[in-house]
Design goal:
It is globular and about 55 Å long. Helix content is 44%, strand content 19%. Helix 5 runs parallel beside helix 6. By secondary structure, it is of the alpha/beta class. The N and C termini lie close together (9 Å).
Length: 300
């Protein structure tokens, strides 16, 4: 299992902070560095800017919401970033949440699986250098894109429910999850997406697992901190469904917390459960972050 670092703390910038973290991540030998697309910097633009300062490392988005960007426009931006990074981009995309899509943007969040299916019908061929010619219920895309120096980049779909996992396994290159515990990864996420890929005759999908992680001597305080920091995710329906499946009352209960031996065991469980990538969201005090970084570095 490959281990990468999630740069969520730097997601609002400045660019210099993102660059520093990405460089540190690359220098430490981690496999990947990921940025979110929330309400700070534009993730793809930032990855293109920092690429030269973080050589040799995969650069991923986790994840870019689909609704605000037409798939033709996202394909253009992704291929431009792919060219700028020398072919190291992994494009993670996702639906976001009804609260955001309807409340902030004013778009309908009805039939989200249909939306993603139509989105991929346009995005996938364009990213692979082919023409898109599709007219669906909500999206139309008839275009070709020519970005010199760009190669196809992997597409991961943030998928938690069965229908989205089947779509990701059938059409995309895998998934990247968030707030989904190890029992759910091994009993639901991995078997569902893998079976879909097999039926479609596709290679085994990537399964990236994003979780908070803190190596600490005070597990009670660390879980209390996780409960405060990640409280929002316990109320968003898609994550709530995964927490319920896991039997976890809240986000703090799926955070990977403990001393070096305990967190190592938790990381190994993810690998044994079929995860191909661990996207570590390191949190805690400065000392705890340093311990966590050192442990993960030892596992690379």
């Amino acid at each position: 299992m490959r281990i990468g670092i999630f740069g969520g703390d730097t997601g609002n910038g400045p660019i210099s902070a993102i660059t520093d973290l990405a460089r540190t991540t690359a220098d430490a030998g981690f496999a990947s560095f990921w940025l979110p697309q929330i309400f700070g910097v534009d993730a793809l633009t930032a990855l293109a800017i920092i690429a030269d300062d973080a050589p040799g490392i995969e650069l991923g988005t986790a994840v870019v919401p689909t609704y605000p960007r037409h798939p033709v426009m996202l394909a253009q931006q992704a291929l431009t970033t792919q060219a700028a990074t020398g072919g190291r981009l992994t494009l993670g995309i996702g639906l976001s949440h009804q609260l955001v899509i309807e409340g902030m943007y004013g778009y309908s969040f009805a039939k989200p699986v249909r939306h993603m299916r139509e989105y991929l019908e346009i995005l996938v061929p364009l990213v692979h250098g082919e023409a898109a010619s599709f007219s669906g219920e909500t999206l139309t895309g008839r275009a070709t894109i020519d970005v010199k120096g760009a190669t196809p980049c992997p597409i991961l779909v943030a998928a938690l429910g069965t229908q989205m996992l089947e779509l990701a396994g059938t059409v995309a290159d895998g998934t990247v999850t968030w707030m989904t515990g190890p029992a759910t990864i091994e009993s639901h996420i991995v078997p569902t997406i893998t079976a879909a890929a097999e039926r479609a005759g596709r290679p085994a999908p990537r399964v990236g697992v994003g979780l908070p992680v803190c190596v600490t001597s005070d597990t009670t305080r660390a879980r209390e901190r996780a409960a405060r920091t990640f409280e929002l995710y316990g109320s968003l329906p898609s994550y709530r469904a995964m927490l319920d499946r896991e039997g976890a009352p809240g986000p703090a209960d799926v955070a990977m917390v403990g001393d070096e031996d305990e967190v190592r065991r938790q990381v190994e469980r993810l690998a044994n459960g079929g995860a191909t990538d661990f996207v570590a969201n390191i949190y805690g005090s400065t000392e705890e972050r340093d311990r966590t970084h050192a442990l993960l570095r030892s596992l690379v």
